[in-house]
Amino acid sequence: MSPPGRPKGECRSAQHEGTPGAMRPPGEECLGVQRNGEPAGPAAPDAAFAIRPACAADVGTVLRMIRALAEFEQLSHLCVATEAELHAALFGPRPAAEVLVAWEGATAAGFALFFHNFSTFLGRRGLWLEDLWVGPAQRRRGCAQALLRALARIARERDCGRFEWAVLDWNTAAIDFYRALGATVLDDWRIVRVVGPALERLAEPR
Fold this sequence. Notes:
Layout: E1 34-35, E2 38-39, E3 50-53, H1 59-72, H2 83-91, E4 98-104, E5 107-119, E6 124-134, H3 143-157, E7 163-164, H4 172-180, H5 197-203
Parallel strand pairs: 6-7
Antiparallel strand pairs: 1-2, 3-4, 4-5, 5-6
């Protein structure tokens, strides 16, 4: 089975604080990117928000929202990603992740970064939501739910066995929100992580 990933802050929902999204020039279009021949999903007309796959021109906007998320979680000192690194991760020869951006007109209202994992028990891949952030001006207006529903559609279209993400245990508002959407919170799982010097030591031959 595929265990949950890293613990995250305020719900991957519209409760995230941060700065408003950047502006895309009116009329600029970004086509949905492909991953292994699969569409990243069509624009979704949920509420007032247009949900579209990020394109290369959106990388700077996405990075600004990632930094706003890190600031909200008081983890800015750990947010060291650069625009070049993010571009390579999303649009390089071997993309590691995909992003949906929620737009309110020409304003980037939020984003969801996701990738595929795999369940050995199901014998099928799943969809893992790593980060979801919504700007303060768009909170409690259905933006987070629009992003989650768009991701659920992608999971269904790609025949994923699961759609999963992590939430901090103190974030009861987020937990209640997710349960209201039909999600199950797995209380018996714990995050296991090896990073930095510990990773270097573990990788060394004995």
